[in-house]
Amino acid sequence: MTGNPSSSGKIWLAPMEGVVDHVMRDMLTSAGSYDFCVTEFIRVTRQLYKPALFYRYCPELKSGSRTPSGTPVRIQLLGQDPDWMAENAVRAVELGSPGVDLNFGCPAKTVNKSKGGAILLREPETLYKIISAVRAAVPAGQPVTAKMRLGYEDKSLALDNARAIEAAGADGLTVHARTKAEGYRPPAHWHWIARIREKVSLPVVANGEIWSAADAEACRRESGCADIMIGRGALALPNLGRVINVGEEPMNWAGVRKLLLRYASIERPDHRGGFLPSRIKQWFTYLRHQYREADEMFRDLKRLQDLEEIRVMLSEEA
Ligand SMILES: Cc1cc2nc3c(=O)[nH]c(=O)nc-3n(C[C@H](O)[C@H](O)[C@H](O)COP(=O)(O)O)c2cc1C
After folding, report:
1. Is the CB of 123 within 6 Å of ligand 1?
2. Fold annotation for 253-317
3. Banded model confidence at residue 2, pLDDT cuts 50, 70, 90
């Protein structure tokens, strides 16, 4: 996963709660050829979840934990109790997740209040306990990976956290190169990932603020990581993975409309009527970064509530 920065590194599709669910993973892995996906986080409380919950977050478990285009999907857990994290990690793997990823980066207030996500970056020893427990419980050969930010308020514990993650036996580490306090404000501090790589020898994936092939190259160069993870940029430019790794032309607006129509046609029996219209509008907020046409269409589309009307608008433009 690490090594000399090169364009042949792997590209991960980032976990994004409330945005990148199994249908979006299908869209983006078919358009963008990602090497790996991570699910939205499952928040672990003091219980062992039933398989149904894991299947809800990761329906791909029923097809070898791969998206329809064949990209492996790993379940992500978020929580602070080592034993319950371990029990749920074992279940995730038993159900077919290729390893498990642990979230130490979520900035949400409700999550941090109950001592989950980024707040744990104040306590490297707690990270150590959680990861050690999960690593000890999950069968050898099934990777246990972690995802961290550079810190909570500041970066003073970034290296300690990375060392704790490695000492606990994690098999890989993704670094979102910002603190919780920095939120999603540019820039991402890729050079900090290089500092972390100097201190640990586990494979590191660089994440944050990659929107183009040029960003990917700069991130690989500054971080020293061949492997990168992409979140919002993948939603803004659906074939970004291929643009970066094989030099494909950025998808044109006609291609995006086709993808949007496919997205709008997938039945969601488990969701209420307003769900898909709001998810489509949410996707447009990312597409507007990249496409002038998305910006123009959004002016009318944002007023529509009815899925059929949205489908008509998308196909009229096609
Ligand atoms: C709406 C949203 C939801 C997110 N949900 C998760 C999540 O469930 N688990 C996680 O580890 N990171 C989550 N993240 C963080 C992303 O995985 C990623 O680290 C961050 O967006 C920076 O990458 P980017 O600049 O490529 O978007 C989320 C980010 C956003 C914007």
Report:
1. no
2. Bacteriocin As-48; Chain A (1.20.225)
3. very low
Ligand 1 centroid from CA 16, angstroms: 5
Q: Which residues are catalytic?
A: 106
How far, in Å, CA of 96 to CA of 229, rounded? 22
* Dist. CA 231 → ligand 1 center (Å): 6
Our answer on whether the CB atom of 87 is closer than 6 Å to any ligand 1 atom is no
Pocket flag, ligand 1, residue 180 (CB < 6 Å)? no
Q: Provide the residue ranges of all domains of the chain, joining segments of one domain with +.
A: 11-246, 253-317
CATH class as words, domain 11-246 = alpha beta
Are 128 and 120 a contacting pair, CB within 8 Å? no
Hey, CA dihedral for 236, 240, 244, 247, is it positive or negative?
A: negative
The reported pLDDT for the residue numbered 245 is 93
For strand 144-151 and strand 172-179, is the pairing parallel, antiparallel, or unpaired?
A: parallel
Whether 317 has a pLDDT exceeding 80, the answer reads no
Q: Report the amino acid identity of residue 269.
A: P
Ramachandran category for residue 156: left, alpha or beta (phi over 0 → left; psi -120 to 50 → alpha): alpha
SS3 of 100, please? strand
The pLDDT value given to residue 272: 82
User: How many other β-carbons are positioned within 10 Å of the β-carbon of residue 125?
Assistant: 10
Q: Specify the residue for token string 């994690």.
A: 170
Helix (H, G, I), strand (E, B) or coil at 149: strand
* Tens of pLDDT, residues 197-251: 999 999 999 999 999 999 999 999 999 999 999 999 999 999 999 999 999 999 9
| CA 168 to mean position of chain CA atoms | 22
Q: CB of 21 closer than 6 A to ligand 1?
A: no
Total-model pTM: 0.96
What distance in Å separates the CA atoms of residue 114 and residue 255, rounded to the nearest whole number? 43
